[in-house]
Amino acid sequence: EVSTEDPETAFCTLANREDLNLEEGSIHHCLYQFTRNEKLTETNKLLCDICTQRHYGPKKNIKSEKKYVYTNAKKQMLISLAPPILTLHLKRFQQAGFNLRKVNRHIKFPEVIDLAPFCTVKCKNVAEGNTKVLYSLYGVVEHSGTMRSGHYTAYAKMRSMNNHLSDLVLRGQSPQALEAEPVKGQWFHISDTHVQAVSASKVLSSQAYLLFYERLL
C-alpha cells in the first residue's frame, strides 16, 4: 500500500534519536541500525509511477512500451503500531565464505526499553503528546553450542498480572501512564526439567537469542 505522507513528518519519530546511547553491541544500537534512514540511488532507485506518467503519459501506454522512470528516494523502517508484546529476534549467525558461523557476542539489553525513538510520529496506538513507549522484559531465550548442535534454555519472570496489558491485548486500548520501572517479580532459569531462581543481573548477562517485552505505557 502506497500512501502520501507529509514530507516534513514522514521520517520523524516520537522521540529524538540523537539522544540515544548507541553503544556498540547493545540492543539500542541494533534497533537504530535496523531503523536507520537509507538513501536509494543508482541501481537501487525507486520506480516512480507519478514521474513515469508525467514523462510518458497514462499507464496504458507505459505497459506496452515498457518505459519507466526511476528516481532517487529515501527509505526508513519505523514502527507504526506499538505491539502489546515486543519480540526481538537477534541474528546470531554470519556468513563465513560458504559456511554459516554462530555469533557468540554478548548483546546488552535493558530491563526497560523505550521504543519511542523507533516509532513513527503518527504511531497509531500511542496517545497524543506521549513521547515514551516503554516495555518491561519478562522472558529471554538463550542458545548454547554451535550452528550444528546446541541447547536452548530460557529465563522467565514470574510476576503479577498486568491489567493494562490485558486491556491492550483484548480491547486495543492504550495503556495508562505507569512508572517507568520493570514489572516486579522473580526470575527463573529453565533448562529442560531443571528450574532455578536467578537474579536479574544473571539474566541481563545472558547471550540472548530471543527477547520478550510487555508494554508498560
Description:
Strands 5, 8, 9, 10, 11, 12 and 13 form a seven-stranded antiparallel β-sheet that branches. It is built from five helices and 13 strands. The model has no long low-confidence stretch (mean pLDDT 85). With 217 residues, it is α+β, with helices and mostly antiparallel strands. 17% of the residues are buried. The protein has a domain of 137 residues: Alpha-Beta Complex (Cathepsin B, Chain A). A hairpin with a 2-residue loop joins strand 6 and strand 7. This is UBP16 hydrolase. InterPro entries: Papain-like_cys_pep_sf, Peptidase_C19, Peptidase_C19_UCH, USP, USP_CS. It comes from Fregata magnificens (Magnificent frigatebird). One of its GO terms (biological process) is protein deubiquitination.
Global outline: globular
Gyration radius (Cα, Å) is 22 Å
Count of runs of 4 or more consecutive helical residues: 5
Helix content: 10-25%
Beta content: 25-35%
CATH topology name of the domain at 79-215, in short, is Cathepsin B, Chain A
Give the N-terminus to C-terminus distance in angstroms. 29 Å
Unreliable runs? none
Give the beta-strand count.
13
Mean pLDDT: 85
Order of helices and strands: HEEHHEEEEEEEEHEEHE
